[in-house]
Amino acid sequence: MAATDVRGLPGFDKMRAEPPMEQKEPLALHQSTACHHYNTEPHSTATAAGFDLVAGKVALYFDGLLGSYFFTSVITKLFFHLSDKLQKIDLTSNIISEIDEDAFMSLSQLNELSLLDNRIRQLPELPNSLNFIDVSKNRLGRKGIKQEAFKDLKDLHILYLNDNNLDHIPLPLPDSLQALHLQDNNIQEMHEDTFCKMKDLSYARRALEDIRLDGNPINLSRTPQAFMCLPRIPVGRLV
Q1: Where is the protein found, in the record's own terms (predicted)?
Q2: Which of these, 24, 28, 57, lies nearest to 40 by C-alpha position?
Q3: Structural contact between residues 211 and 180, judged by C-beta atoms closer than 8 angstroms
Q4: What is the pTM for the complete model shown?
Q5: What's the CA gap between 106 and 239, in Å, rounded?
Q6: CA separation for the pair 111, 128 (Å, rounded)
Q7: Residue-wise pLDDT tens digits, 24-33
């Protein structure tokens, strides 16, 4: 298969080279129907299910898994422009601080996205196909999540936003949500209709069984009505 040299593609100059780090083991390979080999020297090796850049720490697997370790602080749509079959992206523990607003929007089959342990200050637009999102241990703060960012993610089951210095719970949250981790932020208050519908006392949110608010200054005992529709009380401070 002919190699594609990303150095000649638009936007490649936004990538910032960093010193090599200790190599991580690639994630398990899955059988693929497509394979693109991006050639960036030194030491790039194609695999049967995608590509593995030893020096650039990138492993990309179609129809199953993408696990990537980038030596760059900026992620653009360039990285995924040939990868519309991607289902999983793992960018855990890098130095990523910026992601283009539309970087993931062409990935119509993307189910899982992990941006854990980076330096991200602004969450980009997310494809509606996602069912797992982990943006823990970043720098989102007060303005890093846009209003109604998760509203249209009707298949979202897992949302991890802990360790981000958030001062609020991002709303609305889809009814499909099963786990919401917001521990170790700066959330100080909650409204009665954050999770429930106070005008509809018959409303039950049975799927959302795992809510973590521990490590926040909020006192959960002040808003007991906020949990009436939930199967269990969130983990957090009660006194």
Answers
A1: Secreted
A2: 57
A3: yes
A4: 0.73
A5: 46
A6: 9
A7: 333 222 222 2
- Write out the two tokens for 201: 């006392």
Q: Is-cis flag, bond preceding 172, omega within 30?
A: yes
Dihedrals phi, psi of 3, to nearest 5 degrees: -80, 150
Residue position matching structure tokens 């990138």: 58
